[in-house]
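User: Please go through the entry that follows and flag anything odd:
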Amino acid sequence: MLTRIVRMAFQPEKVADFLAIFRDSEDKIRNMPGCRHLELWQDADQPTVYCTHSRWDSAADLDNYRRSALFGQVWPATKALFAAPPLAFSVYPAGVESSLSSLPASQ
């Protein structure tokens, strides 16, 4: 399971436009193959900053969404509202074994 976080800062006067875009597309995104979860978070200290939190069966499923016609409509419309570049990253759950195997050997 892959988790994707996208942090976006919006121009204050464009927040309502973003929320309308999100509300219009959220169910379509949730119904994309491999999407298991999607929610929108608002920053507790910066009310014009929002994060999307989504979970995907695989990186390939996320990539397929990012190549879809839906993403081709939603992302450009959203990007036009930004006050700053977004921060996006993907993560996997870390187990003790996977965390330790990626560390350099001690000398």
Q: What stands out?
A: Residues 15-30 form the longest helix (16 residues). Residues 2-94 form a domain with the Alpha-Beta Plaits fold (CATH 3.30.70.100).
